[in-house]
Write a structure and sequence with these properties.
Length: 309
């Protein structure tokens, strides 16, 4: 495994190394880039990369701007994000990778070198869609707080989650998914962060690519309404997310998966960069939104470092 991982991380070959979530048997695949695996960015139209390494005050100001827009426009949710420079040598990255395999059994752990988008690695907990022999599955994953927070989920967090669930239900219904069932909302634990998750299943025999396009991006990645929030982000967020928030599609042996690329890092000639964000609502607190990005960074990149927990 390390030989393949090294070749990908050093850009020596175009290919992938993947470990499926536990619910799919923790199967793994490695290979050259081919038709079985595809990626699409968060927003193909967004170009440029202005200063995006936001510190606390700048990120809180971005959230303030989002709150103001939500209160004064038709927007009800905006998902802001930021890019973070990470100090890590190859050995450190290798240790993180192995740690993710142990600590995130319910995530897709991935490393790939794409001909256009370069080298990416991460451990994403968000399944956008799964299909096999007519069976269909997706999830609403939205609403986050520190795992140490034992208080009830607030109305802000539940509303944030409901917006995503409503959009998913409408999108899959319009695209021909039938016998839709919505399971009870539960907590998904991810190291130092927990999320609200609702599993949605149904039956689908239509065109896979059409369904993926209708689901991506969900309000968990952009906001609501989706097109208005995407336009706001293009104007205000200040950088090209590239594959962060994008989709990784897999197809093996009549099974199809699409995962949202969260909890991920990008390695290029300028260094290693992690991406993190959160959903902003009208009653959001900018300081708490900043803290949420820090929880997510700790839960992902520094998951094995007890001194940072």
């Amino acid at each position: 495994m390390k030989e393949v991982w090294n070749a990908l991380m050093e850009g020596q070959k175009f290919g992938y190394l993947l470990y499926l979530p536990q619910q799919f048997g923790r199967r793994s695949w490695a290979g050259d880039w081919d038709a079985n695996i595809r990626v699409q960015p968060f927003d193909p139209a967004r170009k440029g990369d202005r200063d995006s390494l936001l510190g606390q005050s700048a990120y809180e100001q971005l959230v303030e701007t989002a709150i103001h827009s939500i209160k004064n426009t038709e927007l009800s949710k905006i998902v802001t994000s930021r890019k973070v420079s990470v100090e890590a040598d190859p050995q450190c990255l290798w240790q993180w990778w192995n740690g993710w395999l142990e600590q995130f059994p319910n995530a897709l752990v991935f490393c790939f070198h794409h001909p256009v988008w370069g080298v990416w690695m991460g451990a994403t907990p968000e399944l956008l869609a799964y299909s096999k022999n007519g069976y269909f599955e997706t999830m609403a994953l939205a609403g986050s707080k520190a795992i140490s927070d034992q208080t009830d989920w607030t109305s802000k967090e539940r509303e944030e989650h409901q917006v995503v669930l409503d959009m998913i239900r409408e999108a899959i219904f319009k695209n021909g998914v039938h016998n839709i069932e919505i399971e009870k909302t539960e907590e998904l634990l991810y190291a130092q962060v927990k999320h609200l998750r609702t599993k949605v299943t149904g039956e689908y025999n239509g065109i896979w690519s059409d369904l993926i396009q209708s689901l991506h991006p969900t309000p968990a990645l952009s906001g609501w309404p989706v097109e208005l929030s995407r336009a706001w982000l293009a104007q205000n967020e200040g950088y090209d997310r590239k594959l962060y928030g994008g989709v990784l599609e897999l197809e093996f042996d009549e099974e199809k998966w699409a995962f949202v690329l969260l909890r991920c890092m990008h390695k290029n000639r300028d260094g290693v960069f992690a991406y993190v964000g959160g959903g902003v609502m009208a009653d959001s607190n900018p300081h708490m939104e900043w803290k949420e990005t820090m929880w997510k960074l700790k839960s992902f990149i520094f998951a094995q470092d007890e001194n940072l927990q």
